[in-house]
Each structure stands twice: as structure tokens, then as C-alpha cells.
């Protein structure tokens, strides 16, 4: 048995196979049928604008000789993309098998549906053989493609990716607040350093991710409809009295809900896509950093994992609970970034007025966001399965009294500036005591007592412990947004 002979066809990529359930929501917006459905939508709405004019009531049709569509005819046309399902997908594929052109196949598919209009609306409907001329009127394929792609990506981001991303940010924000005052030993260069709080460290990620979220929420999605090389040449040749620039702006901005791009070649220049994918890639990398940090916190014992009943951590070591969700997220963020970076780099280039490299490249947008969505799902699952191990955190802090060298030597500097004796070379004196030695609370107190601190400063320093030396970390959590 050859696997290629099995029906239905076996998925080649894990996004459509092993991970299908986790990424299926993107199929609604970034699959090939989703793109074709959006193409049909754009074509139909263009017809309606040309027939019924700006005000939508048919008083000023844009194309002379076309009667305004009735409400019933408009509803019929709009139902074509709305009802585009398995049968429609097959019919479109049949046309494309002949035309070898996906947008031309869309045009013929709409023609097929118009043939059915008389049976629904009656023999007097304008939706007949003659009106087929209005389908794709004065359009180049890229007029339809760029708008359809923008709508698909916009909806995928707003309906699927951004909600999953916000769920990560919201979870981290809630945990940052919950753990705002929970002391944590810092490690800089992997060595014990000034303590912080777990909440403050999570708030750092909240702040970083919120910056990217703001960029994404203000992201523009551009579109154009201006002909074969962006000059409205065919439009003016056919109907020179029409203000085609105004028509284009109306259609893109008001009918499609996109940002109108007035200056293009045959293609919309894709700069907005490069900006979007670059920002998503940046957000991916921040979350990748989070995955690595949490993985190491788990390894260190700062976070404990909640075992999943029945799950196997190792085929040979029964005790293991592996941080696989974070590892899965880490790997899929990397795959997503590689695709997004390629999209960002290549889509902004086109040979003169048009080449076709962008066409096949854009078919990978779903994969790029799919790997990121898979990573988001795994990251959230991982975050929901961990909790702080207070005993480990307390032990780490109590075992590293040398981290109080920083506040002591800084206080010595302040006292030296005030003229107190014996406070010279504070860094060097503390370094001699602290560096390379195991230090206890008693060692710290003896050192403080051996210096001529004023009583208030000495008391303040002696009251410090590694667990209380966290500055205003808890207060900083309030600034994470």
C-alpha cells in the first residue's frame, strides 16, 4: 500500500496533520478555499458598486448601460461567496484545471452562479448573460488578489491570532500581579545577583508583549484597485468621464474596510505585510525568550509542573515530567519566525511592475501564522500547568547572602560622600569579603558592625535579607501596561 493512494489524502505538513485541531481556525481565513471565497466576495462587491454607485441606491450607476441591482439581486450576489462550500470548491477547481488561472476560474465560477439567478429571481432579473460582462470589469488579477489577501490576513489576525496572543499577555499580567511580592533570586550571567520578584520578572514580559500588541492593533491593511500597472488606463479608455480615483478610494476604504493605497505598480507593494509579519516575528521571539526562561526556571525548581494524569514523561524514566509544552512552543516559534522573516524580506521586492514570486510566497502566510498559533497554544498550556515552588525560591535566597554586597557598598559610597570615616574603597572592601566565599547572615552583620555607619543606615542594612532586598519590584508590576 502506497500512502499516496490513501483517500482522503494524507497531510504532508504537521499543521494539517498532527496539529490540525490546534490550527484549524486559520483554515477559515488563510486556506486556498478561504482566499477564493474572498476573491468572489471582492468581485461581487465591485459589481455592486459599479451598478449601484456610491450612495448605494442606484441613482448614479458608475457604468453606463447597467441598471441598478435590486435588493434581491444584491442579496443573490452576496450569497455567492457566503454559500461557497464543498460543491463550490470543486466547481472552481474544475474551472482552474482548464484555465490554469485561479482568478479567471473565480470569474467563470461567478458566471455559473449568475446562470442560476433567473430560477431564483425570475426571468426579468438583470442577472443574466449580459451582466456577466460586469464581472471583473476593468480589473487585473492583482486588483482582486491584493484585496482578498488583505481581507484574509486581517480577519485571521483579528479573529484567531490576536485573541490567542492576548490570552498569553492576560495570563502573564494576572500572574505578575499574583506574584508581585514573591522574592526570587536573580541570576545574571548565570550567577547569583540582586534579588527581584517573580511578578516583576513576568511583568517585564507583559510590558514587552504589550508594546508589540499596540503595534499590531494599529496595523494598517492596505489595498488597491487601479488596473494592470496602477494607472487606471483601461478604466479611462472605457469610461473617461468617471472619476476612477474616487471610485477606487471608495471601494477599498469604505466597501472593503482597508487602507487605500493610491500609488502602486500592478501589485500592491506589500509593505504593510512586511510590517505585520516583522511585528509578529518580533512578538514570537519575545515569547521564545519566555519559553527558554520558564524552561530554565523549571529546571532550577523555581516552577513546579502539574503532572498530567496518564501522560508519559519518558519511555524509560517513570519519574520525569518534561516541560514539553515550552519546548514545542520554542520550536514552533522558530519555524514561524523563519517563514515570517522570509515573507517580510521577499514580498517588498518585485521586478519592475510585476513578477510572480509574491504569489507562491503568499501561499505560505497560513503556515507562518499556523506555526505561531501552535506555539501560542502550547505556551498557554504550559503556563497553565506550572506554579511557583516557594520552598526552592526561599532556599536559593537564603543560600546567597553575598547578594547584599551591592546595597552595602552603595550605602558606603553615600556615607563616604557625607564624610563618614572608613568608607573609602567600598567596592574593594565588600569584594574582599563577599567574592568567592560562602557568606552567612552573621558574616554580613559583623561586616556592617565593623564600619562607622550612622545608626539609621546600619539598622537599615542589617534589616535586609536576600528575600527583602527587592527594591520596588512589586510596585513596578503596576507599570507593565
Automatic annotation (TrEMBL):
Residue span(s) of domain Adenylosuccinate lyase PurB C-terminal: 350-470
Record GO terms (molecular function): N6-(1,2-dicarboxyethyl)AMP AMP-lyase (fumarate-forming) activity
GO biological processes: IMP biosynthetic process
Enzyme class: lyase
Entries under InterPro entries matching the protein: Fumarase/histidase_N (IPR024083), Fumarate_lyase_CS (IPR020557), Fumarate_lyase_fam (IPR000362), Fumarate_lyase_N (IPR022761), L-Aspartase-like (IPR008948), PurB_bact (IPR047136), PurB_C (IPR013539)
Keyword Lyase: yes
Family matches, as NCBIfam families: PRK09285.1
Listed name of the protein: Adenylosuccinate lyase
